[in-house]
Amino acid sequence: MADTVREIERKYEADDDTRLPDLTGIDRVAAVVEAGTEDLDAVYYDTPDQRLAAAGVTLRRRTGGRDAGWHLKLPVAPGVRDELRAPLSETPPPELTALVRSRVLDGELVPVVRLRTRRTVRVLNDAAGAPLAEVAEDAVHAWPAAGAVDAGTADAGRAGARWREIEVELTGDGGTGLLDEVGRALTAAGVRPASAASKLARALAETGQGRDGAAPPIAGPGERPAHGSGKAAAKGKAAGAKGKAKGKGAGKRGKKGPTAGEVVLDYAREQVRVIIELDPAVRRDLPDAVHRMRVATRRLRSAFRSYTKVLDRAATRPIGVELKWLAAELGVERDREVLTERLREGLAEVPATLRLGPVDARLRIWSERRRAGARDRLLDVLDGPRYLALLKTLHAFLEEPPLRKAAGRPAPEVAAGAVLKDYRRLARRTEAALAAPAGRERDEALHGARKAAKRTRYAAEAARPALGRPAKRFAKRTKRVQQLLGDHQDSVVARGTLRELATQAQRAGEGGFTFGLLYGREEALAADRERALPDVWRKASRRKHRAALRP
Question: What is the value of pTM for the model shown?
Answer without folding.
Answer: 0.86
